[in-house]
Each structure stands twice: as structure tokens, then as C-alpha cells.
Design brief:
The structure holds two protein chains of two kinds.
Chain A lengths: L3 E4 L2 E4 L5 E7 L5 E8 L3 E8 L6 E2 L6 E5 L5 E5 L8 E8 L9 E2 L3 E5 L1
Parallel strand pairs in A: 2-11
Antiparallel strand pairs in A: 1-3, 3-8, 4-5, 4-9, 5-6, 7-8, 9-10, 9-11
Chain B lengths: L2 E5 L2 E5 L4 E8 L5 E7 L5 E7 L5 E3 L5 E5 L4 E6 L8 E8 L9 E3 L3 E6 L1
Classes of the chains: A mainly beta, B mainly beta.
Chain lengths: 114, 116
């Protein structure tokens, strides 16, 4: 039972470098999400994808781009990393329907931007 | 826009004591409400949720929460704390389900410490 898999688990970048965080789910879920978690601020939504082929901005999208490559995969890209993007990033997925109101989270990516 | 406020960023209880974690929400429509738990170095896991129906909802590990519309609250309780309950707890509110495109807004979290 893999669930939601995120890679890498840890990453250190220099300011201005780019990188892509990968996320894949094997539960055939329609919706996928990227959150960042910062101390004292809880989780804030960066981008989400309600279904394959669609993406929408969340609360804090600036400096990020996303790609819903297929139903399984939803990647988050930092084009030019900044120290303010130092955070723990979580990918999550959810199935469709009122009975499925539950997010499944990956184990997170800890990113440091120097 | 929906929002949630969690009172107390840190709560400390003795093992065997009552756990009470507070959450108040703001929503212009009937909300869906959730409590998630995060253990160290892990992602969040759903504890319980309120969507419709009974206002007292029971979750995993002996936790429960009551939706009180008049107080706009959804406080989390457990009668007797266990050491394994030490974790960070997040309250969250969602848009009404509309075909799967809804989003969760999380509170800032409450770190629960359980002492012997």
C-alpha cells in the first residue's frame, strides 16, 4: 500500500536554483494538492488539481508552478528558489464524492534554500 | 472565505487527564469540518470529520468532536490522554462538496504534550 509517494525527502538548494518535487498516488484519486507547512502557520495550499487536466492556484502560489502529468502524478516546480521557500512540502490526494472527504498525505519533502 | 482558529498553540496534559483542543470556524455556508493529526516526521492523518448528520462525531484512537453551530465551534476531546497521543493536531474547514473540487483550509495547529 504505497498511497501518496513524494520525492525527494530532503533537498538543499542555493538561491536561484530550480527543482521539481514529485508526487504520485496509486489510489486512483481525482484531486491532488500541494501544501507547505511552516512553524506557527499550519498548512497553506499552494496549488491544487481537481481532476486530470486542471490546476488552480491556492493561497500561496507565487514562485511555484505545477503540472498534473496524468491522473497519478502532480509535480511542483520552483523555477528560482528563494530562502522564503524553505519549508516542508506535502502532497495530498482525495477521491471524489461526499463519502470520500478525506485527504491522504505523503510523508513530506523538507526543503532548505540557502 | 472559510477559516479556522485554533486556540492555544501548545497544550500540556497529564496522562489519564481530559484532552480538550479548541477550534472555531468561520464560514458563510454550512461547513465540513475535520481534525487531522500529525506525528513527528510524518504527513497528516484524518482523525475525524463532520459533514452532515449527527453533530457528535467519533474518530480514531478514542477522540471525538462536537459540531456546535451556535458557537461556531468544533472542539476535539478525549476522556483520558495517553502518551501516544502526543502529536500536533490540526482543525480544518472545507467548502461544501461540489463534485470533488473543494479545498481544505487548515488552522495553525496545536501541539499536544502528554506528561507522566
Amino acid at each position: 500500500n504505497a498511497g501518496v509517494t513524494q520525492t525527494p525527502k530532503f533537498q538543499v538548494l542555493k538561491t536561484g536554483q530550480s527543482m521539481t518535487l514529485q508526487c504520485a498516488q496509486d489510489m486512483n484519486h481525482n484531486s491532488m494538492y500541494w501544501y507547505r507547512q511552516d512553524p506557527g502557520m499550519g498548512l497553506r495550499l499552494i496549488y491544487y488539481s481537481a481532476s486530470e487536466g486542471t490546476t488552480d492556484k491556492g493561497e500561496v502560489p507565487n514562485g511555484y508552478n505545477v503540472s498534473r502529468l496524468n491522473k497519478r502524478e502532480f509535480s511542483l516546480r520552483l523555477e528560482s528558489a528563494a530562502p522564503s521557500q524553505t519549508s516542508v512540502y506535502f502532497c495530498a490526494s482525495k477521491d471524489r464524492g461526499q463519502a470520500n472527504e478525506k485527504l491522504f498525505f505523503g510523508s513530506g519533502t523538507q526543503l532548505s534554500v540557502l | 472565505a472559510q477559516s479556522v482558529t485554533q486556540l492555544g498553540s501548545h497544550v500540556s496534559v497529564s496522562e489519564g487527564a481530559l484532552v480538550l483542543l479548541r477550534c472555531n470556524y468561520s464560514s458563510s455556508v454550512p461547513p465540513y469540518l475535520f481534525w487531522y493529526v500529525q506525528y513527528p516526521n510524518q504527513g497528516l492523518q484524518l482523525l475525524l470529520k463532520y459533514t452532515t448528520g449527527a453533530t457528535l462525531v467519533k474518530g480514531i484512537n478514542g477522540f471525538e468532536a462536537e459540531f456546535k453551530k451556535s458557537e461556531t465551534s468544533f472542539h476535539l476531546t478525549k476522556p483520558s490522554a495517553h502518551m501516544s497521543d502526543a502529536a500536533e493536531y490540526f482543525c480544518a474547514v472545507s467548502d461544501i462538496w461540489a463534485g470533488g473540487g473543494n479545498k481544505l483550509t487548515f488552522g495553525t495547529g496545536t501541539q499536544l504534550k502528554v506528561e507522566l
